[in-house]
Structure to design on (420 residues):
């Protein structure tokens, strides 16, 4: 049986999982003795590490990358979906990329499968999974100033020389990977390691929704996956979103004038005096000026205007959380709801999806739902997200988990240590 929490549990718990049923998930939970995997009932399912990160395979297999310090040097190992070790060894690092697990030891790279078996030994200076089971690799010295000769390497270790050299390769996005050729220019390689888009750009971004931002002469343009120009390279900056596999919104800024394009690349909104823009959601853009900011959607409709002393955080479903010197409120298509007493607030998220708002009245923390209805009163020294419907809280010396009805699922006094 898993062990029960009996430790000082700090309020900052990290829910690093996809949205789903809370009861079946494990979450990274930080206490004085380290980080453990815990379920929503307060049961510990792993040993303590310095940090734990959840990763998913392309087929939805859950794994955890656990890191621990040894003589002030951080090492990484792999845990299964139940928090149990899959490896009897540590690497300098493990990370997920394009559906593969990459290992690093002594500056060299290798690969594991999702059961923890070694696919490729740690012998490569460049190793980029192509998302189709093979890898772009090199064993050349990356620090010698000479572009590295590239190979296509299969999981059985066999390699085919690609007759190309590169001194930088990113990661595959939508079947293409940006790379810097021996001539210092950027282009895009296919999964077979062939130049799909010739290296001709000073800088380049990853593909999203069939589009990528590229730079020439310090100016930004937009291309499609065939290398055709969608917007010429004459803008100070371009950002493009992707949702559901298709770009839904593009913002191009030239000398302070921002133009918003829809998914068909038709201009739907223009605003002057814009310093920069960002996209909190695939269909929304925030245009930031010196005197405030504008929130608009992919149809060019202005949803919200805020002042320079205000900050906005979108919550989905047409809701936006606004915090400023005059208070905190929720803005939506049906009007605004003031969060009474709040002087600070931020969204609580499960798998990146907002489900509640954490509020602070200057002395204590509480929580409300996305319509502004109270979930937890202003009674806690800290409130953080565990998963939807479960919060980690601290109230005096009492620490633990509390549900949306304000009932303690588990609590413990901070004077007691972590025990097995």
């Amino acid at each position: 049986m898993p062990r029960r929490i009996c430790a000082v549990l700090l309020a900052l718990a990290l829910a690093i999982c996809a949205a789903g049923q809370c009861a079946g998930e494990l979450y990274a939970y930080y206490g004085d003795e380290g980080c453990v995997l815990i379920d929503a009932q307060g049961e510990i399912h792993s040993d303590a590490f310095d940090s734990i990160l959840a990763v998913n395979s392309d087929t939805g297999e859950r794994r955890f990358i656990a890191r621990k310090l040894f003589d002030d040097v951080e090492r990484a190992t792999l845990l299964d979906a139940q928090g149990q070790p899959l490896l009897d060894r540590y690497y300098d690092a493990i990370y997920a990329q394009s559906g593969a697990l990459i290992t690093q030891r002594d500056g060299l790279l290798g690969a594991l499968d999702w059961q923890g078996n070694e696919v490729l030994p740690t012998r490569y200076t460049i190793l980029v999974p192509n998302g189709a089971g093979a890898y772009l690799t090199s064993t050349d010295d990356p620090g010698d100033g000479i572009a590295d000769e590239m190979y296509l390497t299969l999981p059985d270790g066999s390699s085919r020389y690609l007759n190309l050299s590169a001194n930088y390769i990113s990661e595959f996005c939508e079947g293409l990977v940006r790379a810097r050729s021996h001539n210092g220019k950027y282009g895009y390689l296919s999964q077979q390691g062939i130049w799909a888009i010739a290296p001709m750009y000073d800088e380049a971004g990853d593909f999203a929704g069939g589009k990528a931002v590229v730079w020439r002469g310090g100016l930004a343009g937009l291309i499609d996956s065939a290398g055709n120009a969608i917007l010429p390279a004459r803008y100070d900056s371009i950002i493009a979103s992707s949702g559901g596999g298709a770009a839904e919104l593009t913002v191009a800024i030239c000398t302070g004038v921002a133009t918003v394009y829809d998914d068909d690349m038709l201009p739907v909104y223009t605003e002057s005096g814009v310093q920069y823009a960002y996209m909190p959601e695939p269909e929304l853009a925030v245009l930031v000026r010196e005197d405030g900011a504008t929130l608009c959607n992919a149809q060019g409709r202005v949803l919200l205007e805020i002042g320079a002393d205000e900050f906005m955080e979108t919550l989905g479903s047409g809701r936006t959380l606004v915090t400023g010197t005059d208070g905190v409120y929720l803005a939506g298509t049906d009007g605004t709801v003031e969060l009474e007493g709040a002087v600070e607030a931020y969204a609580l998220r499960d798998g990146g999806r907002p489900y509640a708002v954490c509020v602070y009245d200057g002395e204590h923390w509480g929580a409300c739902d996305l319509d502004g209805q109270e979930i937890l009163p202003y009674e806690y020294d800290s409130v953080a997200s565990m998963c939807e419907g479960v919060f980690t809280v601290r109230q005096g010396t009492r620490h633990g988990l509390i549900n949306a009805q304000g009932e303690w699922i588990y609590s413990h006094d901070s004077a007691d240590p972590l025990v097995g």
In short: Residues 1-23 have pLDDT under 50 and may be disordered. The radius of gyration is 24 Å.
